[in-house]
Amino acid sequence: MPNLADSHMCDQFVRKLTTCERRLVEMSDWEQSFIKDIRAKFAAREDQLDLGVTPWNPSHRQWNTLGEIYRAYS
Question: pTM of the prediction?
Fold first, then answer.
């Protein structure tokens, strides 16, 4: 599973996510929903850390899907 605690992986994740967010209007409803859901999960990491809960990390499938969408729209 990708670990966003690793700064390099986190930087890659954020770059792909923000690029996709800029192109949301061009995406299918499913892709838009996926990107918005991933953003919400990523945004909740800070609160999870504050509460002492293990923060969310994308699954391999989520990581790969984000990469596929990123490649399609970048």
Answer: 0.91
